[in-house]
Design a protein that fits this description.
Strand content: 5-15%
Structural class: alpha+beta
Largest sheet: 2 strands, antiparallel
Shape: elongated
Distance between the termini: 49 Å
Number of helices: 5
Helix content: 25-40%
Order of helices and strands: HHEEHHH
Strand order of the largest sheet: 1-2
Number of domains: 2
Oligomer: single chain
Length: 129
């Protein structure tokens, strides 16, 4: 697909920061859409991880799940935090990338780990933070 895309002189710049070439060409548009569909569900921040269409971890999460809100006891007070990030939440400035529409949650285990009382203590994070 990429060879055919290049052979047809198709050029599309990320976020349209420069004028594109060949996008009025039906072949270029079709090839670009096919390639976009193939990469739509990639986790651009961890390309080596096998994509999971519902997030990651033992119990996969979607952005709409109520289980996405975690709680931790800090200084005797229960605090809440959001587990993980969607592509759009992590990179809000990227609005035109097909992956930005994804509601898959990445990094939910990391946010749970970092927000645990034990890790906060080990990292000397004050209760007020």
């Amino acid at each position: 697909m990429l060879d055919s895309y290049n052979d047809n002189g198709c050029i599309v710049y990320f976020n349209n920061f420069r004028p594109t070439n060949g996008t009025s060409n039906e072949t270029c548009t079709d090839l670009f859409n096919q390639m976009s569909d193939l990469t739509n569900d990639l986790n651009w921040y961890d390309l080596y991880r096998v994509p999971n269409p519902l997030g990651s971890g033992k119990k996969a999460l979607k952005a709409t799940d109520k289980e996405r809100i975690g709680t931790v006891n800090i200084g005797g007070e229960e605090k809440t935090y959001k587990k993980g990030y969607t592509f759009a939440e992590y990179t809000p400035w990227i609005k035109n990338h097909p992956g930005a529409l994804s509601q898959h949650v990445f990094g939910d285990e990391v946010t749970t780990y970092i927000n645990s009382a034990e890790v906060r203590t080990a990292l000397n994070i004050p209760d007020g933070v």
